[in-house]
Amino acid sequence: MGLYDNKIVVVTGAGKGIGKSIAIAYAKEGAKLALLDRDAENLVKTEKLFRELGGEVFTQIVDLTLPGDIVNAMLKVKEIFGEINILVNNAGLGRSKSPYELDLEDWDYVLNTNLRGTFICSREAAKVMRGNGGGSIVNIASTRALMSEPDTEAYAASKGGILALTHAMAISLGKDKIMVNAISPGWIETGDYSALKISDHEQHPAGRVGKPEDISRACLFLTNPENNFITGTNFVIDGGMTRKMIYEE
């Protein structure tokens, strides 16, 4: 019996990387998972993994730029499981282009996926949550909402918007006992961790590059019912990098 035994957890962008790690973490705690992703191949692989582990899982291909996809997915989750207890808005993408060359098509694609998609997922899940006594939403933002590298305007704007959306929805949904928080990851390596250089790790005050499990554990903490006094906040998980003053010698 885990802390999240039989809780219904929806994770977007669950086919790989951080989203997959988050889903596995909840499954280990006894949750039932609804995994959403636009990448059919990765979603099938993740679903197979969960079934091999004996977990109860529902998967659906969802393009977050299509509001109808999101609405239908949340209705399907409610139909299958009866309720939604936790939503983790993890899916996101970027376009690296100079602001001189970033066209509106790219801008809209990033904003509609990351920011508008997060809002619609939250809105639709919250409709279900308020009917079953409340719930918890975690939005995966980014340290790019707080600091930037060149040519990341659309991505930074979308993640900054997610932080504002988080505290706005925390206020609006609090009366329905729905907690809304954000996590802003820094460098979280989802590839070959052993291939990282010593200098990659040493530049972090924490002494290492982040792992997907660092974000998974934070999700479990924020959605723990005993932590329901935490809402509207943003957890920066970056090994201390946003607190480090960096000057070239």
Descriptive overview:
InterPro entries: NAD(P)-bd_dom_sf, Sc_DH/Rdtase_CS, SDR_fam. This is SDR family oxidoreductase. One of its GO terms (molecular function) is oxidoreductase activity, acting on the CH-OH group of donors, NAD or NADP as acceptor. Pfam families: adh_short_C2 (PF13561). Belongs to the short-chain dehydrogenases/reductases (SDR) family. It is globular and about 60 Å long. Strand 2 (32-37), helix 2 (40-52) and strand 3 (57-61) form a beta-alpha-beta unit. It has helices at residues 17-28, 40-52, 67-81, 104-129, 153-173, 198-202, 212-222, and strands spanning 8-12, 32-37, 57-61, 86-89, 135-140, 178-185, 234-237. It contains seven helices and seven strands, in the order βαβαβαβαβαβααβ. It has 249 residues and is an alpha/beta fold. Strands 3-2-1-4-5-6-7 form a seven-stranded parallel β-sheet, sandwiched between helices. The chain has a single domain, classed as 3-Layer(aba) Sandwich (Rossmann fold). The model has no long low-confidence stretch (mean pLDDT 96).
What is the topological layout?
Blueprint (H helix, E strand, L loop, with lengths): L7 E5 L4 H12 L3 E6 L2 H13 L4 E5 L5 H15 L4 E4 L14 H26 L5 E6 L12 H21 L4 E8 L12 H5 L9 H11 L11 E4 L12
Parallel strand pairs: 1-2, 1-4, 2-3, 4-5, 5-6, 6-7
- How helix-rich are the residues, as a percent range? 40-55%
Query: Could you give the order of the helices and strands?
Result: EHEHEHEHEHEHHE
CATH class placement: Alpha Beta
Structural class: alpha/beta
Shape-level CATH architecture: 3-Layer(aba) Sandwich
Number of domains: 1
Task: Detail the poorly predicted runs.
Answer: none
Number of strands: 7
At the fold tier of CATH, the topology name is Rossmann fold
Our measurement of the CA-to-CA distance between the termini, rounded to an integer number of angstroms, reads: 54 Å
Roughly how many Å is the radius of gyration? 18 Å
Q: Enumerate the strands of the largest sheet in spatial order, edge to edge or round the barrel.
A: 3-2-1-4-5-6-7
CATH H level: which superfamily? Answer: NAD(P)-binding Rossmann-like Domain
Instruction: Give the amount of beta strand, in percent.
Output: 15-25%
Organism: Dyadobacter frigoris
Family: Belongs to the short-chain dehydrogenases/reductases (SDR) family.
InterPro entries: NAD(P)-bd_dom_sf, Sc_DH/Rdtase_CS, SDR_fam
GO molecular function: oxidoreductase activity, acting on the CH-OH group of donors, NAD or NADP as acceptor
